[in-house]
Amino acid sequence: MEAPFDVTLLMIVTVVAGISAQVLADRFRVPGIVLLLLFGIILGPDCLGWLRPQLLGDGLEVIVSLSVAIILFEGGLNLNLRELGRVSGSLRNLVTVGTLITLVGGGLAAHYLGEFPWPIAFLYASLVVVTGPTVIGPLLKHVPVDRQVATLLEGEGVLIDPVGAILAVLVLDLVLNGDADPLRVLTGLLIRLFIGAGIGAAGGAFLGVFLRRASFLSEDLKNLVVLAGLWALFGLGQEILSESGLMATVVAGMVLRAYGLPEERLLRRFKSQLTILAVSVLFILLAADLSLASLVVLGWGGVATVLVLMFVVRPLNVAICTWKSPLNWRQKLFVAWVGPRGIVSASVSSLFAILLTERGINGGDSIKALVFLTIIMTVLTQGLSAGALANFLQITATKAKGALIVGSNPLSRLIARLFKERNESVVLIDTNPEAAKEAEQEDFRVFLNSAMDTEVLEEAGLEDLGTFLAMTKNGEVNLVLAQRAIEEFNPPRVLAVFPRDPQARIPANKTKIRQALIPDLPLKTWNQYLTDGEVKLGETSLKERGFAFQVAHLQALIHAGAMMPLLIERQGVLQVVIANESWQPGDRIIYLFHAPKPKLLKRLSGGNQSHLTVEKLQEVEEIDIPESALDAPVTTDKKRKKRQSKEQTTTNSSGGQPPVTSKNSHHKQAPIS
């Protein structure tokens, strides 16, 4: 009973350590692979000795194979063919020409600098041609670069994995059999890719049709059907021709996504969770199986080999493969810097080390050590510096400008105009013909359609806009629209007007969807204020000196229901105000101030006949807001109405302007009629 218990304890410790590493990585916003490698080495035989992967025997190879199949399928499922089309030329070059450049460059570096024999040097190079979605994906979540760069890196990571794995197997076959025929290697690679793609396309289509028609299946069972199906396709490919199963899983994921299943969001979430578990287990086990002594033996030659791979081979690869692409030099430089190696390199090199040792060929442990050294150096340097480099190159998605607003109402059109006046692209979407016509009359680009239609969002250009704002009358609909936008386009800033009911459903992706505007200020009321012309447009810059007083002043006006913050201009980027957001010195707040008309004046002007147009936005003028508004948080609604009535009388007798009581205020307001 001791051996089975040891294996059980091994898997328990592995899973606990892997998930713990992922939690800590998410907490401190570092690539998960960094802590996974660290935990695996510490728990391995060379340190604490709590993990001994050799107890698994052949089971390690089984775990590696099935886990890699899940990882690649999830990568294919997340690929957006529409976005890939924009970088298809560069992506094709990276997967084909780029593979050859890395193979040759890596082999030369390993031979001349690492002092490896030619066969072993090129075997190492074949193992590191891949990057990998398990590293690129989490990295891009922490570093939100613009969509073209992110799509190119994600596509390369997913598509080059099966190519690299198959190439490595073919090079290993040459090393073991000694028959160096490049033509045979190329033919074997193409045949395996073709067979795998065919199996994946047919299998993915079958799964898509089956899931659409199998209405009797629950959502949870459908997820398990997909899991069983992808493993079946992987096994079929492996049975027909070794290593073709990897390509089958990638293509199956891409085809299944193209079917647009209603349960696709739940399926991707399930597969994402499986991928995190698979990556956690694999990296812990493989790192624990790594000998630290073998890393030391590599010496400076191994370090130099990896440095050449990072600073010479990768930049040359990207420069050639993106020569005629529309990417600018900043984007190309970032792609050239980010090329961390991941789970496929680690898992295949571990298996190769076992096979070479069994055949009595020296170099298996050295190859594994050099591959892991490559993983460690690329992940640590590129993963930890990618954010700073993206900010320096100014290619972060958070810098993207423009807005797509769902819902045409007076408030949304005012926000749209404020974006437009700063030369930012704005698009509105509404299903109401009258609301859409009003937006057209104000010279906005409008789509009379549903924002649930991804083709409409694509035509509206959401990929290139920085903000998605859902502010229809229905808060639940806003949440659904925002989730849809994230799943299909993942814009930098996704906002929605949530229901004011505290028992309302919380969005599933609450870390990405932000609550727009102030929830305690009903949009219906402020839309009516705008229609009646009872508001003034104002702006104020928050200064370092007196910052706390300014914020308290503004918050008092908000709690009194007298002011509605709309936009914040921060570091040159115009953003919609987010609920409960902490303001900072230097922020420029653009807001609406409720300035009710006297009842007699409203009757004479026709009540609610005023409409908001561009021509009615007057020049901003310097006026002050009464400091008496600071008492607003403790004022009841009845008292506030009485106070507003007094203020109306005072305003009417003083020519329409509120009294000036503070000389230090920096507010600016413009009346909107």
Please, could you describe this protein's structure?
This protein is 60% helix and 8% strand. With 673 residues, it is α/β, with parallel strands linked by helices. The protein folds into 3 domains: 52-397, Na+/H+ antiporter like fold, CATH 1.20.1530; 400-516, NAD(P)-binding Rossmann-like Domain (Rossmann fold), CATH 3.40.50.720; 522-673, no CATH class. The longest helix is centred in the N-terminal third of the chain and has 32 residues, at 182-213. The relative contact order is 0.08.
A few lines on this structure:
The chain has 25 helices and twelve strands.
What topology emerges from the helices and strands here?
Layout: H1 2-28, H2 32-43, H3 59-78, H4 81-84, H5 88-95, H6 97-112, H7 118-127, H8 133-142, H9 147-177, H10 182-213, H11 219-240, H12 244-258, H13 264-288, H14 292-321, H15 329-337, H16 343-358, H17 364-393, E1 403-406, H18 410-420, E2 426-430, H19 433-441, E3 445-448, H20 454-460, E4 467-470, H21 475-488, E5 493-496, E6 513-515, H22 523-532, E7 535-541, H23 547-559, E8 563-570, E9 573-576, E10 588-594, H24 599-604, E11 621-622, H25 637-653, E12 668-672
Parallel strand pairs: 1-2, 1-4, 2-3, 4-5, 5-6
Antiparallel strand pairs: 7-10, 7-12, 8-9, 8-10, 11-12
Helix pairs in contact: 1-2, 1-13, 2-13, 3-11, 3-12, 3-13, 3-16, 5-9, 5-14, 6-7, 6-14, 7-9, 7-17, 8-9, 9-10, 9-12, 9-16, 10-11, 10-12, 11-12, 11-13, 13-16, 14-15, 14-17, 15-17, 16-17
